[in-house]
Hints:
Blueprint: E1 4-12, H1 17-31, E2 35-42, E3 50-58, E4 70-75, H2 78-84, E5 88-97, E6 110-114, H3 116-124, H4 130-142, H5 147-157, H6 163-181
Parallel strand pairs: 1-4, 4-5, 5-6
Antiparallel strand pairs: 1-3, 2-3
Amino acid sequence: MAERYEIRFSGAGGQGLITAGIILAEAASIIEGKQAVQSQSYGPEARGGASKSEVIISDAPIDYPKATVVDACLAMTQEAADKYAVGIKDGGVLLLDDDMVPNTPEGDYKVIRIPIMRTAKEEIGREIVANVVALGAMIALTDVVSREAGETAVLNKVPEAFKDLNKKAFNLGFEKVKKLMN
């Protein structure tokens, strides 16, 4: 039986979660040579409404490109948590932005909370890299690709002027989750 791992990034439109999904898929496929597909959907209002990006990673060809049983889900807003935490498999993981999602959706999964937006804003000084903080956190949480592959994929995607900023964001997200898990 082939390993199939499904990850859902969700939050508000404009938070860069589709980009995070694309970067993860590239880390898996281009850098690690696995099979990966990425898909996305927006709420009716593209900016502000709940949006999601899903990545399926497998070591065998992926026959169905949509997430069915989600292994890990990120929710950056309460609306996204309420709408998209459904479908996380028993024993899966839900990563929440600690400040933005006060109410934890009920389910038989592990919940990890870190202040994603606040980390981007206060520790890096740029809220725009919150998606990269979240990506680092998800990779730390799931081990679905290596830390190195994730970082390389991030750096391949951003302009030269923003490489240091994004590297710092990725590693901060990664470290915060690893600390919580130990």
